[in-house]
Amino acid sequence: MLQALGVSTEAESLYVRIARQEDVALASLREGGPGDLEALLGELQELGLIIESSPGRIRALPLAEAAKGIRDRRVAEIDAAVRAAEAMSLHMWETQAPSTGIEVLIGREAANAAITDLCARSQLEIAAFDRPPYVNVHEPSPAYLQAHSPEYQALGRGVSVRGVYHPGFDRDRLAELTVFLRAGEQAKLGDVPMKLILIDRKAAILPAPRSYAPEPEVKATVVRHPVVVEALLSLFEAVWERSVAIRPTDTGELQQDPRRDALVSLLMSGATDSAIAGQFGVTERSVRRWIADLMDELDVRTRLQLGAALTKSQAFRQDNRQLL
Prior knowledge:
The protein has 324 residues and is of the alpha+beta class. It contains 13 helices and 11 strands.
């Protein structure tokens, strides 16, 4: 019964004998007890199933509490083993990185330093996927971004910056995106599979596999192997092609979540709910909810009325642009 806890059959029998009494004298255990009594007592004591209540006397601890203690120790041992394995794996990656073109970075500071360094040396293009969770919380102003954002600084040097964003923006992220668009970033909205930064088609940074240890450190992978970088670039281009452009208004502002404009564009193109869901990486139920919100906004009750309202709205916008 207790073998799953690492208790031998003989030790279990001895534990049951002790547990049936409040405490037991060692002398009585030796009388007619097993020949390896001392070894079995040591086994039970090491597992935390018994204690010496007083000199020469033994008491069994409650089995449920003892089992929890054994579980906690085993979990701690496994966590320690995982951390040791990760440390060894990191050491192996570090020794192999020059030949494999793949480097694993441990810690947020190391990852941010690598992003800053690669973006600072970019000359042609930075291409990126971005999706929640967003790791940086800061003031979304040009002055702040010029001082702290390597991607924004690259725009100032004339480097092309393209980004595909997953649907759903909080207010700060929307404000930051507006600043980037004003500075010349090309942005689209689509189903983003992961976070990714590609620099000059020569290097890439993406999240490393998650650790199984509790509260794992942030890890990132820097890839310079040309075959892997080319594959990641192909993935980016495929997602870019099927994503929907994000464009600011005539004043350069993004007044709302770009998801709305992308939804309108897809509806105007005749896309089905299923196609829109696939485009955004969400369920059809979410798409129907978005459409219902749009219908409420435009005060219409049917899809046919929605199409007419959207057509009228688009025509009005085009007429206004021609007058400017």
